[in-house]
């Protein structure tokens, strides 16, 4: 038993080592990508469930690693948060998004509001609003064209502070969405007080919306509550027609998901918009 334990220990050590090496690797790749302008932004359309028109897009970060390809944010966002690199990354994403927005306008496309994800560390910056307004002004994009997606976890960490920042952003015309709703621990008391305009229902509720009555009832309740609070509702991760039909029946008006469109490069998005039939 003792030798087996020793073996296990060594294995544990090696895998910890591999993990540490991997983390260092990703951190270096992230630093280089930020320095060398290898950060990419892709855009996933949001559609109306009534007429399937595009009503906006969400900007999603990608890392272009030379010789390797695209790295998913699932892999680099947590590390970016830990190292603080997320602040520089988030600002680069916002700047690139603004540039693409101007390009779409110049090509004659009005894509509705464009949503950018905000990280916990960014949200804690005391001068967040000013930093965002500066980038918008430099890139000549109106604050009214921007929406920020913030997760429940981020705002519930210090809800009173969150309300102050959110109110400030709102006063400048920037809209706010509560992301991944249902996976965190928002209290209803705060939900009422947050100056948000949109709730995004997390994919985990949408996954089983037809298979599980409980999930369907949850979504129905969230939609009803959101509407009572005067909020828009977007369902995330819609992959089939049955889910879209059920969401529509439950009065959810907007959705995002592979059924409608995957995240697309700015050019691919324009190509889709120029194509004769959308869906
Ligand atoms: P999120 O904000 O909840 O974004 C939705 C994620 O679900 C995206 O993954 C999107 O590609 C994916 N998705 C959309 N529709 C479907 C679908 O029908 N099926 C499935 N299986 N997935 C779908 P992605 O792009 O890998 O991003 C993952 C997470 O990384 C995001 O989750 C967000 O929390 C974070 N993230 C991405 N870009 C940024 C960024 O610029 N800044 C910050 N702070 N976080 C970001
Ligand atoms: Ca999001
Ligand atoms: Ca989400
Ligand atoms: Ca998510």
From TrEMBL:
Where the record annotates domain EAL, the positions are 23-277
Leader sequence segment:
none
What is this protein's record name? cyclic-guanylate-specific phosphodiesterase
Instruction: Tell me which species this is from.
Output: Pseudidiomarina indica
Q: What is the lineage of its organism?
A: Bacteria, Pseudomonadati, Pseudomonadota, Gammaproteobacteria, Alteromonadales
């Amino acid at each position: 038993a003792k030798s087996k334990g020793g073996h296990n220990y060594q294995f544990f050590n090696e895998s910890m080592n591999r993990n540490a090496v991997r983390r260092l690797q990703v951190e270096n790749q992230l630093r280089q990508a930020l320095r060398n302008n290898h950060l990419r932004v892709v855009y996933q359309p949001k559609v109306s469930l009534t007429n399937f028109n595009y009503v906006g897009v969400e900007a999603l970060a990608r890392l272009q690693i030379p010789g390797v390809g695209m790295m998913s944010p699932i892999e680099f966002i947590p590390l970016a948060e830990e190292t603080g690199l997320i602040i520089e990354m988030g600002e680069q994403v916002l700047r690139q998004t603004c540039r693409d927005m101007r390009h779409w306008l110049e090509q004659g496309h009005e894509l509705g509001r464009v949503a950018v994800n905000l990280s916990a560390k960014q949200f804690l910056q005391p001068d967040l609003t000013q930093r965002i307004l500066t980038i918008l002004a430099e890139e000549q994009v109106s604050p009214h064209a921007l929406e920020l997606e913030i997760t429940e976890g981020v705002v519930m960490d210090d809800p009173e502070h969150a309300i102050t920042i959110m109110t400030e952003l709102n006063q400048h015309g920037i809209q706010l969405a509560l992301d991944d709703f249902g996976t965190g621990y928002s209290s209803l008391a705060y939900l009422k007080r947050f100056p948000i305009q949109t709730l995004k229902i997390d994919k985990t509720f949408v996954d089983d919306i037809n298979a599980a009555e409980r999930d369907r009832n949850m979504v129905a309740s969230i939609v009803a509550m959101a509407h009572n609070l005067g909020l828009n509702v977007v369902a995330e991760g819609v992959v089939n027609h049955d889910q879209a039909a059920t969401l529509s029946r439950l009065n959810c008006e907007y959705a995002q998901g592979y059924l409608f469109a995957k995240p697309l490069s700015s050019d691919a998005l324009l190509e889709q918009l120029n194509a004769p039939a959308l869906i």
